[in-house]
Amino acid sequence: MARKLTFALALLVLATVFTGASFANVIPTQITFGPNTTGSVSIGNTADTFTPITGFAYQAGPSGTFTLAGATLNYSNNSSPYSFVPNSQWFTVSIGPDTMTGWLSVEALFINGKYGLFAGAYNITSSTPGFVHTGFRPGQATIDFVTYQGQLSSGEINPSVPEPGTIALVGSGLLAAAGALRRRKI
To answer: What are phi and psi of 161, to 5 degrees?
Structure first.
């Protein structure tokens, strides 16, 4: 009996931790950016060339700036969607007193007429508390952006923070599992 009670309490504590994490002080908020004010993007037959790009960035109202370092990214295949050989570019976002920096790794390019859709990962190396509070801790986030006629027209960075509902669902699932195991006589 004591063994069952200990096991049930351990599962209950674990479920409470997971459920409580859903109400943590992180409010995931994506960052949108573009159009660029300086720099350009040139989509070629074998590679894309970025001159240093700057522009406006926004997060739930406040505006700031973004900077994308210049680079040439080579394709590893010859048709859309293009894949890239390993690459990275320095990407910085500053909004108000907060700054986030890291390496952008472009993984795919989809071309549709004059538009190019780039998708990849943003490996955050440094982030101030305001960005950490909105889900942008050092680590990986997803990023995508659209180019049009040599300009970066728009993009977004999405934090890699689990949604509170997902965490709560895992917690309640663990509670259900604990109840089911309790009834089965461990």
So the answer is: -105, 130
Spatial separation of the C-alpha atoms in residues 164 and 172, rounded to whole Å: 12
Rg (CA), the chain: 22
Host H or E run for residue 133: helix 129-133
Mark 105-141 as b/e (b = at least 16 C-beta within 10 Å): bbbebeeeeeebbbebbbbbeebbebbbbbbbbeeeb
Strand partners, 183: none
Against a cut of 0.70, is the pTM above it? yes
- As beta bridge partners, residue 36 has 55
pLDDT value at residue 165: 56
- For β-strands 71-74 and 82-83, DSSP reports them as unpaired
In angstroms, the CA 57 to CA 177 distance is: 44
Type of residue numbered 108: A
DSSP state for residue 60 in the 8-state scheme: S
Can you tell me the mean pLDDT for 110-121? Answer: 87
Of 42, 41, 90, 30, nearest to 66 (Cα)?
90
Strands 139-148 and 151-158: antiparallel
Provide DSSP, 6-27.
Answer: HHHHHHHHHHHHHHHHTTSS--
Distance CA 148, CA 114 (A): 6
Beta bridge mates, 152 = 147
What percentage of residues in the chain have a pLDDT greater than 90? 52
